[in-house]
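Quick board copy: two proteins, each given as sequence then tokens.
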Amino acid sequence: MLNTYRYPKFEYRTPPEMAAPGRKGHYPVVVVGAGPVGLGTAIDLAIQGVPVLLLDNDNTVSIGSRGVCYAKRALEIMDRLGCGQALVDKGVSWQVGRTFFRDQEVYSFNLCPQPDHHRPGMINLQQYHLEERLVARAGQLSNIDLRWNNNVVSVAAGDNGATLSVETPDGFYSVSCDWLIAADGARSHVRKLLGLDIEGRVFMDRFLIADVVMQADFPPERWFWFDPPFHPGQSVLLHRQADNVWRIDFQLGWDCDPEEEKKPENVIPRVRAMLGDDRPFELEWVSVYTFQCRRMRSFRHGPVFFIGDSAHQVSPFGARGANSGFQDHDNLAWKLKLVIDGKAPDRLLDTYSEERGFAADENILNSTRSTDFITPKSKVSLLFRNAVLGLAGKHAFARALVNSGRLSVPSYLTQSRLNTADEAPFSGAMVPGAPMDDAPILGPDGNAWLLGALGNRFQLLYFVDDAAAIDGRTAVALGSLADDAVPVEPLVVARSGVAPSGLKTLIDVAGRIAERYDATAGTAYLARPDQHVAARWRSFDPLKVRQSVAVATCNAVPVTMEAQ
């Protein structure tokens, strides 16, 4: 029981396979695990028209605050799913982080220093609030069948799909599916049932989470201390969450007794030493955790996909867990939709493991570096770390070495085989494979944001100065893209004017789109359904657009030496 939150109890309903004897249930997609990533996956597929059966072995949301920080890219994905604003409204938005060595600030950063972005660099929100809002969103979608207290006890996977045995309060039943998505966390039961391994490194250290309820006028920032006077020789992290709940992480060392450290009589003195005797507070939730950096070799095994913590795990420093998991389903859902609809070959699904495997390696590398800096494993490492911190207050080169947790940023999939290489020079970050930058627009429905107009389908951004000046031949060529087997929606991005009938016009009201995409009149960008750049050109050629769509969907015919 928490002071600031009452856990919902979701209703169990007898599955139709049990209510009607002899009925066999078959579903296009079954998702196991209704945590943040499983819920996000189900919602993502459902809004693209794919029916989903979502199974969870519990009947409530996560116990304790657990995941706290959700990055700008995750919020943009949540916007695409229709629940971003609810999360921002409840969460604590922040941009600035500060790092202290003993009692001196040595480093600060701003996650989003540029103006004209819709979402903040990060919000802090207890995981139970996040899950409750995702459950509400899932309940709005008629093609999600969310079943609580449905525990998967066996899985058989083959060339034609998977069959699951599920235990409920009413007994057992079986369902089959074409595709199975395991989103059942770091201890994935599906992974164990299939006899699959996960490999990596466990870090020999422990941290205490103390969520406290208090009134404080501290700014909404991330504060991290190395060797502070109130917790000498260790590190401490402070975050503000919703409802005046503050997350404090105390480094404990490997030799501590976790059960002893969780006792209030041991937690309260640590918090009081940090906050002072005069500030009242109440303990909300306490936990001790270790962490690890691990991943499966492949995230796809035939018809079974592993996603989020079931596929890869990182230390909490950098907020890479749920943020990475949301990017997993952002990558998988559109590919699965195309394959289900017969518009892309099965091999497109292999690129989920390729692209998100690359992202997992990147996250594990950054997380490992952060953890090694925060918890040095030798006297030499500790001396180096403290020397860097001592110099960071005065020297820029040392500040670049300070690593209190490189915070989650989306991966640039620049090596993906789904990209089309540039034919002309461009500047800026919007390279093929990049997650697309946001910017303000004036659209047909009024003031809005670029990413709000993108997603769930292939789209072509065509840049012009005056939309009204587009000639008839170009207008017809743009419009014809929407009639292809894999349709492409054309979007005219202009400084002014209205495009010919049938074409949607986005006005670049602040000039930020042209700036961030290095766009001049005639420039065209092909956007993937997950809001990544697939290709870009200095002039619009419908044939090249179609070729790039074929590449991005694995529909292009591979070129062999004989063909050359």
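And the next:
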Amino acid sequence: MKNIRNFCIIAHIDHGKSTLADRLIQSCGGVSQRDLHEQMLDSMDIERERGITIKSNTITLEYRGKDGQEYQLNLIDTPGHVDFSHEVKRSLMACEGALIIVDASQGVEAQTVANFYLALEHDLEMLPIINKIDLPAADVDRAREAIDAELGLDPFEALPVSAKNGIGIGEVLEGIVEKLPAPQGDPNAPLKALVFDAHFDKYRGVILQCRVMDGTLKPRDTIHFMHANRDFTVDELGYNQMKLVPRKQLSAGEVGYVVAGVKSVQDIEIGDTITLLNRQAEEPIPGYQEAKQVVFSSIYPMSTDEYMDLTKALDKLAINDAALTYEKDSSAALGFGFRCGFLGLLHLDVIQERLQREFDIGLVISAPSVKYHLTLKDGSTMEVDNPSYWPDPMSIEQVTEPYIKASILTPDEYVGPVMELCREHRSEQQTMNYLSVGRVEVISEMPLGEVLFDFYGKLKMITRGYGSFDYEPTEYRPTDVVKVDILVNKEPVDTLAYLVHRDKARARALHYCEQLAKEIPRHQFKIPIQGAIGGNIIARSTIAPFRKDVTEKLYGGDVTRKKKLLEKQKKGKAKMKQFGSVNIPQKAFVSVLRADKE
């Protein structure tokens, strides 16, 4: 066990985690030169195209140290984006050490700090690494100062590397062996293994990624999931070495895969503890948490005949992604669809793109919302994330909405615009920490619903790309949220209703009305498009009718003849308006929701 090292790589998004992982795999001979490509541990096309890690991955490497001993290095790659921080937590639970990467040109960013504190909570040993030293803008001394000031780690232990060019990789491997601790555990104790990830294989079912804390696991053992309370028999186990390599057993301290005939990721819970059915551990591994969905949105197929295809596609995605939840939903305008729960906006974006790309389904996605807690006047409580289920305003006693603690790192010259941006998004409390020369951390408490739409894009714009943003959910607080209905020809359109704070209701309603007025074709009668809170109209646009010049055939004579014809036309228009119905084209919905998202 003293020759095993379990470690993960944590950093801000786009600081070179996957590139460093590639170089480590290459140096240890984990993959042949012929099979080598960029982002070896990122299996999805969308991950490679965007240069992000969405799903954490693991690999076992064999390394011969300078002392001549053979070491087994278990590398667990983690996502960098805030939406997937629960995956990072589970990966940290499976490790004893972490490589913490700092970009030599950008310094310590928000997500690095957030993941650093997560690693501290799990008592991990840290090895700082300064990456991208080959860039013209690289400043290694400033990065060392940031590591000392912002992370409190020894700046002289930090290893300067260029993962892209392979500079300093040998020193990183030696640093892992020398600085990071070996795992602890008793191979003869009752089995305790942490399931930190899983993925679905259509031939073998769910393949579990496990870290064995105590005990030994062998094929044909019957295992028991302590949280899910289910039993399975192990068919095969072994190491992940780019492909699955079967072994005779996994014992304390080791990381590997387990195939046990699990049919779907929904059957088990990621983060669960597995033990032997006939010799159970007394208690599960502490720290288990379920993934919490924070953003909700309705997904409808562009064409109603694709509903069955969308159902099958969501089933297939959910088999691999246990964090995605969905239930049936319907709309008078768009037909049948699904109300889905996501971990954040990036998660929503990724699922939407995978549905369109892998299953070729055109989608209409409603504006994302968060979950509100309501207390009614009769004393009962309810949770609402869908405007369709919002109760009558007269029956509501109090509404509370989720708040977050946002941490924004920015160069000091942009502090004013950043604080103004937070104020625009209803920030309640702001504090500033001067971390190092020229860098400021702004900590702000604000509603999660305010961050959903355009916050991140605006932050990048006002800080010229240097600002970084991370958040953690805190609590629910009282708020003044209202439901805004959009009426087309005085008829409410359920799909376009949305929940928003009263102060922002008018601006958004005006935007919806103007957008719809552009997209809905003109009819023979005047069409009012209105935004309303209950019975109060707060915004309006009007689509002018087609008008036929009925007086064209008159050539002179008394003016009363002209008036008579215009009166007749006016009566006809009024009658038509009474009985006429407005057809809202699908592209009108798409344009409103798309523009709203931007």
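Board note added afterward: The chain has a mean pLDDT of 77.
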